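hi! just following up on the protien thing from before. the input was this:
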Amino acid sequence: MYKVLIVEDEFSIALDIRMRLQDMGYEVVQIAKNYEQALKYAQQTAPDIALMDINLSKGKNGIEAAKDIYEAYKIPVVFLTAYRDDATFQQALSSQPFGYVVKPFVDQDLHFALQVALKKSSETASSQENNQPAPAPLKDTLFIKDRSQLIAIKLQEILWVEALGNYALIITPAKKVVANLSLKNIEHKLPPHLFLRVHRSCIIALDKVEKIKENSVYIDNTAIPVSKSYKNQLLERLEIL
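and the predicted 3d structure came back as:
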């Protein structure tokens, strides 16, 4: 049974609509007579759909209520109004309603309008879920496969990475982890503004360099050789006074 919120400022009309909806098999969760009540009851009762009069007694009108209810709670709105003029209809369209029924109405016409609106709302929600972009992967962490587990390594912890045959050995102050990837593949995973290859078999973290002496850089008191072909790139990346 679908739940309907009625927004109608004339109580006798609202009661008639409620009775007719109940006869059609709908559950009326609440009757609101103004903008404030419409937003309040939409939040409290979580209806499947709202049936909205355009001309409300005070405050904002039904068009504004419809727009805010859909933006806040994604509850579809069908207008049920005595207004037939094109200007009001065009104004109502700005709130992206799911239907527009003119009073006086035939029960079956209202029922069809509600069913179409509910189906359209369901399809819209499904489409939005399917088109959600995939969550972005963590950019500051590498997860290295080790048998049946994944070992997390923060990029800021990496001192250097060296080739180990067809594998790569990742060095941090606390551990050494073997990755089942070549050094070239690891290089593609590392942000180039933080890391630099200094030898065909070694990539270093630039911010971990302690000193450079002759053809070696020192990280964690360990000398790492720098090839002639990479030395100029290294010097260009450093702030030398």
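The mean pLDDT is 91.
The longest helix spans residues 107-130.
cheers
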